[in-house]
DNA sequence: TCTGGGGTCCTCATTCCT
DNA sequence: TCTGAGGAATGAGGACCC
């Protein structure tokens, strides 16, 4: 084997695994006090203090759910109202991104102290190249994987699942084999026995659309995909995606573990409590719009970026989404400039239907010196520039 | 009573320029 | 002057991921 990679996933709130618990639904002011009760102590959540799913009314979705809750058919990305029908007795916890970031940093620090070549894949997932880690090859990588698991648990109280394989593609699939808190090792010779029986949907990069198209051709498993000739796949799915599917089915993936990356865009968006109309709810929409621009500007300034491409996204009440953007000559992170250009974009979309979502995005980023907290310009008063609609 | 928020990457069409 | 190829930049939309 040329290289070992592992993908690691945090399992949140493992101590609640016996109870049906879902996390999601956004964060309301009344959640703050509850969150304070368990901040920093994920093992000691006052479950009784939280709402039951059946009492929820709103537009949120589930961020994650315990295995006990999943038995009722609820899971990530499902609307909370639908989940409440399936499992009304489930406990609903509000999301707490500040806590997730804290634990995320902790768990990545632990890994970096053991294996320095790490790729960040979000709040609870990383790839690791431990080709050059001392002892990384012992027992096929199992010894090192165990050490990482134990170190993460000691530091955070959280469990994780680890997949070890010749490349990132297979390591990711392997990490799913043995959840939670498992270690799975897949060697090149295991492709036919362990990977080919899986549904194509298990490939990271095959989503619901690609799965449906594959099924339409009678292709369900990765093994069936592997049997299709490359030219046929390229004809059906395009040169690039077809070739990628073929490689994936044969377990080929040459992507390195990337330790550094620059952001491409930053955005803020919000779904309204109720659908808003550009004319009837003009003042409310204008205030939200201004606020989104200010928040993007603050994000850019805090992280030290400016961007040339400014855009908007909106979603109508029928769930159609449209985007518009415009590129300006000089990169900016100024809230008023973003507001002005985003306003021009807004003029280019039809506003005859009600809206459920509005977003503002800045792309084509370049690094600039970050603003320190005390040098940040004060946020402009909301409503001061209402009236673009 | 459906369907969040914050991202990346890809494709395709259009326009402008050489 | 006409036509066309090809590349870069831009803009819109969509698939996918955590």
UniProtKB/TrEMBL annotation:
Major location (coarse): cytoplasm
Localisation per UniProt entry: Cytoplasm
Active site: 125
Cofactor requirements of the protein: Mg(2+)
Binding site for Mg(2+): 124
One GO BP annotation of this record: DNA repair
Residue intervals of the UmuC domain: 1-207
Classification via Gene3D superfamilies: 3.30.70.270, 3.40.1170.60, 5' to 3' exonuclease, C-terminal subdomain, DNA polymerase, Y-family, little finger domain
Record site: Substrate discrimination: 5
UniProt KW Acetylation keyword: no
Keywords, alphabetical: Cytoplasm, DNA damage, DNA repair, DNA replication, DNA-binding, DNA-directed DNA polymerase, Magnesium, Metal-binding, Mutator protein, Nucleotidyltransferase, Transferase
Catalysed reactions listed for this entry: DNA(n) + a 2'-deoxyribonucleoside 5'-triphosphate = DNA(n+1) + diphosphate
SUPFAM superfamilies reported for this sequence: DNA/RNA polymerases (SSF56672), Lesion bypass DNA polymerase (Y-family), little finger domain (SSF100879)
Assembly mode: Monomer.
Function summary: Poorly processive, error-prone DNA polymerase involved in untargeted mutagenesis. Copies undamaged DNA at stalled replication forks, which arise in vivo from mismatched or misaligned primer ends. These misaligned primers can be extended by PolIV. Exhibits no 3'-5' exonuclease (proofreading) activity. May be involved in translesional synthesis, in conjunction with the beta clamp from PolIII.
PANTHER family: DNA POLYMERASE KAPPA (PTHR11076:SF33), DNA REPAIR POLYMERASE UMUC / TRANSFERASE FAMILY MEMBER (PTHR11076)
Family: Belongs to the DNA polymerase type-Y family.
Protein name in UniProt: DNA polymerase IV
Organism: Melaminivora alkalimesophila
Primary gene name: dinB
